[in-house]
Amino acid sequence: MKINPLNKNEVAYNQLEKMIIFRELEPGSMVSEKQLAESLGLGRTPVREALQRLSYERMTEIHPRRGIQIPPITVESQLKILEVRRDIEALCVRYAASRATLEVRLKMLQLASELETCAQKRDDFKYAELLKEIHILLVKAADNEYLELAMAPLQGLSRRFWFTYKDEGQDFVQASSLHAAVLRAVYNANEEEAVIASHRLNDYLTDVAYRSIQPRK
């Protein structure tokens, strides 16, 4: 079955995002559009479209006539991302708690349980997919397209940092619990608790960033 052009764009975007988050494309490395198209088995056009989208999200840097650079991972960048993300995400969950439909609330409850189950299994790829789905659903529930524009550049690089520096044991459990608390507060239409849960999550992610400075044993 042939994939239509729109789906090819989405396939290219999802695959490249995954490769960046899990460092299959090394941070700081330079790659070409042609190389990426060949590795994905896709044409240049969907890959180009995906790279433009990833560039907006600061997950790639496009250098004309030189290639595509994968941004390095630095604690300084992560802390700046979290500094901005703190208030924007709190606004997003507040709106989501007051505006989400019953269907979306029920989906959030389901995702909270799925994320906690996935954390117990230590399934990196599935966990990353669920996190992305959660972020998309929260923005959808907030019902403000400008929030979507603001949130998109803050999510992917933040996820990449977490997967790079998380502890294989406790971090999965702690992070899933904090994300689930946000979702359940939104499900309960509790705006204040949603904001508090969002701030707790941000505090935890900030702690992971500072912890990354310490040499690993």
Explain what this protein looks like in three dimensions.
With 217 residues, the chain is mainly alpha-helical. It folds into two domains: 5-69, Arc Repressor Mutant, subunit A (Orthogonal Bundle), CATH 1.10.10; 75-211, Four Helix Bundle (Hemerythrin (Met), subunit A) (Up-down Bundle), CATH 1.20.120.530. The protein is 75% helix and 4% strand. It contains nine helices and three strands; from the N terminus they run αβααββαααααα. The protein has a three-stranded antiparallel β-sheet. A hairpin with a 3-residue loop joins strand 2 (61-63) and strand 3 (67-69). Helix 4 packs across helix 7, helix 4 packs antiparallel against helix 9 and helix 8 packs antiparallel against helix 9. The longest helix is centred in the middle third of the chain and has 25 residues, at 75-99. The protein is globular, with a radius of gyration of 18 Å. The N and C termini lie far apart (49 Å). The model has no long low-confidence stretch (mean pLDDT 92).
**Total individual domains:** 2
Secondary-structure element string: HEHHEEHHHHHH
The helix fraction, in percent, is: over 70%
- In CATH terms, the superfamily of the largest domain is GntR ligand-binding domain-like
SSE blueprint:
Layout: H1 5-21, E1 30-31, H2 33-40, H3 44-56, E2 61-63, E3 67-69, H4 75-99, H5 102-121, H6 124-142, H7 145-165, H8 170-187, H9 191-211
Antiparallel strand pairs: 1-3, 2-3
Helix pairs in contact: 1-3, 2-3, 4-6, 4-7, 4-8, 4-9, 5-6, 5-8, 6-7, 8-9
